[in-house]
């Protein structure tokens, strides 16, 4: 019986077990997906032992996403560029392969829910410069966005991203974040603001044009205050749940065989 799972700290509230559990049932695979809380000082040991217990791979979450890169035997280009991995494959020869599918999930969600979205229709504006934002920036540039604006409360983090990702980026001060929405065709909240129990994102949306596609990485609630206000201004909005669903698909396929489907059934199973 093939085993996969999630390593992180904490992992108790993760939706991934429900997500993969749904796909395992749907495909009648006698496997399991196990959430495993792992402390940083145990990470290396856990990664050595899991393959011997029958694990074919794991997802990785906070606080291990960066550390696993140094423990893996092979790292994909996109994981190296982002500086973090979310998917590990334990190969039969004992080697650990690390990938980052967050950017893929981000783009696949937009393509599925806004099929007419065009990355090169105009500038993209990314709010936030944390780990999730790095994956979003990498995938937007890869998809053909020609101008990418970024703003973060802690300015140095956006400057770091510009230093790594290059000339197509412009850094905006946090106090000027509203201005970067002017003329933007794609707008992304990649901060944790708007999540249940947190403050809402308070970037002024007056400069937002109704033709923009607006999306949020926060999916609890599905419709964040930011998405609701953008929608009220006439924008097309895509919620963040689909990114979670799509980023999981490549891992499931590598571990268990079938390419799983991302549909309404899955959304219901995960919510
Ligand atoms: P993740 O991996 O989910 O991106 P992270 O690296 O901790 O997590 O990043 C969280 C993002 O939300 C950052 O952009 C963070 O801004 P800072 O870099 O200034 O910390 C942003 N964020 C979180 N709380 C915030 C708040 N109260 N105001 C503004 N930005 C906030």
UniProtKB/TrEMBL annotation:
EC number: 1.1.1.25
Domain Quinate/shikimate 5-dehydrogenase/glutamyl-tRNA reductase: 124-192
Residues the entry annotates as binding shikimate: 14-16, 61, 86, 102, 219, 247
All residue ranges annotated as the SDH C-terminal domain in the record: 240-263
Positions of the catalytic residues: 65 (proton acceptor)
Gene3D superfamilies per record: Leucine Dehydrogenase, chain A, domain 1, NAD(P)-binding Rossmann-like Domain
GO cellular component: cytosol
Keyword NADP (UniProt): yes
The protein's annotated pathway: Metabolic intermediate biosynthesis; chorismate biosynthesis; chorismate from D-erythrose 4-phosphate and phosphoenolpyruvate: step 4/7
Binding site for NADP(+): 77, 128-132, 152-157, 217, 240
Domain of life, source organism: Bacteria
Listed GO MF terms: NADP binding; shikimate 3-dehydrogenase (NADP+) activity
Catalysed reactions listed for this entry: shikimate + NADP(+) = 3-dehydroshikimate + NADPH + H(+)
Assembly description: Homodimer.
Function in brief: Involved in the biosynthesis of the chorismate, which leads to the biosynthesis of aromatic amino acids. Catalyzes the reversible NADPH linked reduction of 3-dehydroshikimate (DHSA) to yield shikimate (SA).
Similarity field: Belongs to the shikimate dehydrogenase family.
Protein name according to UniProt: Shikimate dehydrogenase (NADP(+))
Lineage of the organism: Bacteria, Pseudomonadati, Pseudomonadota, Alphaproteobacteria, Rhodobacterales
